[in-house]
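Researcher: I'd like a structural prediction for the single chain below. Treat it as a standalone chain; there are no partners to consider.
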Amino acid sequence: MKIKTAFDKIIIFLLLIAAAAVFITGFFTTIYYDMHVDVDYPHYKNETISHLVLSMILVFAFLFLCYRKNILQHSEKLIWIALAFCAFYCLLLILAIKPLPVDDSKLMDDVLLEFEAGQYSSLTGAGGYLYTWPFQLGYFLFGLIMDDVFGHGNYFAWDIILMLSIIATVFLLYKITWELFEDKAICGIMALLSMGMLFFYNYSTFIYGDILSMGPQTAALYCIILFIKREKIKYAIISAPCIALSVLLKTNSEITLIAMVMMLIISSIKEKENENGYFSYEFPHRLIVRIIISIVIVLVVFGSKTAVDGYFCRLTGLREIPGGSPSVSHIAMGLQESELEDGWYNGYNYRVFGENNFDTELTEKAAIQNIKERLDFFVNNPRYAIKFFIRKFLTQWADPVCISTHNLDLVSRHVENPTAMMYYIVFGSGSIILRWIMNVFMSVCYLCVIFYLTARIRSKRVSHSEMLLLILIFGGMLFHQFWEGSSRYAMRYYVYWLPYASYGVKMFLDVIVRRFKNAN
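Model: Treating it as a single chain, here is the predicted structure.
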């Protein structure tokens, strides 16, 4: 138990430092993207601090008014209002922009047509898209199903599925907030704050696995929290297909799988409500049960991946799925300087695979050698290394829009019959308003996260359920310090700060109310 307590303290302390760094950076600077540029290239500019402070004061004043009027207690009504707003905003984007697939999603869209015509060279031929990135096969199979059901090129259907995944994620975050804190006011705050997550809702126009995987991933997290609290195996069993679907759609969800397994094992420790400490005789039995559950979940996930690979082997006549460009090429790229932003995508993983004749083993050796060279350089130049990793962290996590405005620009480029609303939202004054809302949301969110983490350090107690999402967020931060950097990837963890930020808001409001009472 002492080891577990020390582990919790370390995670929370490191997250506190990270949250403070993001808040301070976002308070004095902000990140923006040039329009009509094809690549993800974040730029810094000075923040308008006076406007930001005033906006934050207005947000807290509104929340304080809702608190005093007991509006926050009606959390069930507030979450339905929030979900209605989410649906309205996403539909507005979808109907106004009529987005088209871009970048990798456009390449995948073309490959879908090839497969439907019986052309499988993208997977069977060296250098093909799926040959290079076979981890996309789960998402690609989903695309084949979508084409069978809705017809190829029915991007409106894709956008509606994305919107439903977003709505499901927000609703499950509300349910998670209740399970973590069991406080209607905190849930009400969460519902109101969720309407500021425009960076998340903007991706209803981005046809790719990121958003599709968020719904089932959040469902898996919610089920594990229910299992930890209620100890009913059915919840853990339900989480298995949810996380399996999420991993198939986006392999980054494997970080969530790791967090789930870790908390299943850690939750074997059960606190006893008397002076004798803990049920030592229960621990072995609880640990064995959770190990078995963890094994089942992992088997379901990797069994699903094997089943998908088997399907494509039968379809194309391959004996096995190609190894593709190895994962270490992403790590090598994540440690490199770039003309755009250090540690972000620069095409290295494509180039190194081609330079090594599309041979997975040779590419892996080349990438590992590149990693060793960069690590040696970091060791011999510690100041450079510190600056490199701090900047890479902040460009990912202190980006209030999470590249979403740049992606709105990309998906709006070549639409037929563009609407006036599209120009207003993407390129006009509407874009300025939306960016400012996301800017204010980030500062409010991270300030209140700091309140929460500080309180947990002081109380020296944090529940198993709370630690699940904290470990996930920490794992995401750590992983993308070495993997290919992008604030779009950080968004997958950013949204899970919302319950903790809501708790921090409630703490702040409680302090203000007490001071008002003392003054009177």
